Amino acid sequence: MKILGITGGVGSGKSRVLYELENKYKAFVVEADKLAHELMLPGEKIYNQIIDEFGKEVLCADYPYSIDRIKLGNIVFNDKDKLEKLNSISHPLVKERILELIKEHSLANNTKLFVIEAALLIEAGYRDICDQIWYIWVDKEERIKRLIESRGYTREKCLSIFSSQQKDDFYKKYANYTINNQNGFEDTSKQLKDLLNILLNNDIIS
Fold first, then answer.
1. pLDDT, average across residues 111-117
2. Helices 80-108 and 45-54, packing angle to 10 deg
3. Residue 159 belongs to some domain of the structure
4. What is the CATH number of the domain that holds 91?
5. Could you give the number of structural domains in the chain?
């Protein structure tokens, strides 16, 4: 089983890449952000630690008193220290669960490709886990256009988010390969197939 890390900035099209890997190439895909949301459910490890750190004001008003991610986001978005504290709570527990899933799939011996997607894949130390890391690249203006069209973001919000993320050079430095997702998905799909043949020694379902 090969372990592949996928990363890239918001608006770069990672979701489409993950869909292709999962549905065309039968990869098992873990999205770190979605997994973190699952671990924020009442009774889970992240839930309890967030309540301890940020208080009950981040909870929804109704039972089962789930964490209101909008309230939590408003607290940490403009406070670097609080954001770092949230990350220090969630990232190790997400990583712990991902390692458990890797072990399960490795022992079951029925998964050829295990994919981990995370915006902070490199910063959170997944290079030691992954056989390869691929960076999904799209230029800034195209990402802004996609985010305005798909999520209704303003240009100002896009730029604010970008400013909190690493620059292209950082990702390109630490990733094994950069996938250009700028020119339509047919071209991206071809790049994926070529790189999968390298990663899996030409042993893919095409």
1. 96
2. 170
3. yes
4. 3.40.50.300
5. 2
Measure the CA–CA gap between 155 and 147, rounded to whole angstroms: 9
Q: Does 203 map to a domain?
A: no
- Asked if pLDDT for residue 187 goes beyond 80, the answer is yes
* Confidence at residue 63, expressed as pLDDT on a 0 to 100 scale: 85
DSSP string, 39-80: HTSTTSHHHHHHHHHH-GGGB-SSTT--B-HHHHHHHHTT-H
- Give the pLDDT confidence score for residue 158 in this predicted structure: 92
Q: Closest by alpha carbon to 121, among 2, 203, 3?
A: 3
Residue 160 banded pLDDT, cuts 50, 70, 90: confident
Q: Which helix (H) or strand (E) holds 5?
A: strand 2-7
Rounded to 5 degrees, what are φ and ψ at 79? -130, 100
Tell me the mean pLDDT in the region 92-109: 94
Give the SS3 label for residue 130: coil
In a domain, 97, yes or no: yes
Residue numbers of the domain that contains 60 = 28-111
Q: Is residue 70 part of a domain?
A: yes
169 & 131 share domain: yes
Name residue, tokens 């949230």: 86
